[in-house]
Hints:
By secondary structure, the chain is mostly helical. It has 2 domains: 36 residues, no CATH class; 202 residues, MetI-like (MetI-like fold, Orthogonal Bundle). It starts with a helix and ends in a 6-residue tail after the last helix.
Amino acid sequence: MIQRWFEFKVPLSTRAKVALAIIAWVLLLGIWQAIPTLHPQFATLCPPPTRVVETLTELFVEKDYLHDVWQSLARVSKSFGLAIAVALPLGILMGAFPAVEGFLNPIVSPFRYLPAPSFIPLLLAWLGTGDEQKIALLFIGVIWFLISLYMDDAKRVPIELIETARTLGASRRIVLLRVIVPSALPALLDTTRQMLAVSWTYLVIAEIVAATDGIGAVMMRAKRFVRMDIILAAILTIGILGFLSDMLLRGLRWSAFPYLRK
Length: 262
């Protein structure tokens, strides 16, 4: 069986995938649990997973951590929803019509290389220190990439489908809404999943500036008191939330496109 695992591009069974996942997590958690025993200082700087889980339970039970989690979840949801609302129509139009791409891409493409945190001083001056500034930063972190990736997804629609629809008398509007969008939809959903993960990575950056709540604010308060267990618990929380949101979109794809199930 082990030899079969290392064959090129041979699909693994569900049992093999589960086994490999369990092995990977057991090794990771085992090494993490053992690190603090190597030197007493490591116990403070890198608490074992058992301590992190205890701290996470304490945060939820005694520290109103659920409120912070909810605030962070709301910020990511609002910013990412706004980004999709802007990027989806622009990306599809750019992928469908070269003239639209030629007009917008010279603006969109360079902005992808501007780091979102560099906008923090401007956003603070324009929007203050409230939620609007944090949501705007999360929005900027993904919008340009979303537009470009959605454009690429629309471009990958086979030209034969478009030509067939046009030959049958379909208008540009019908081709766009009945051919290009449905054909690109699975790829658009996959792109959304990938960029949602990126949005979660910007959360801490958005919440470390003048924040009073949220997971990032919890981490910054913990840093002042060298509470590495709280910091690791917060990192674990972001990872779990990101994983659950990814699973939600995976489930949506699985139910919406049964012909693509693997």
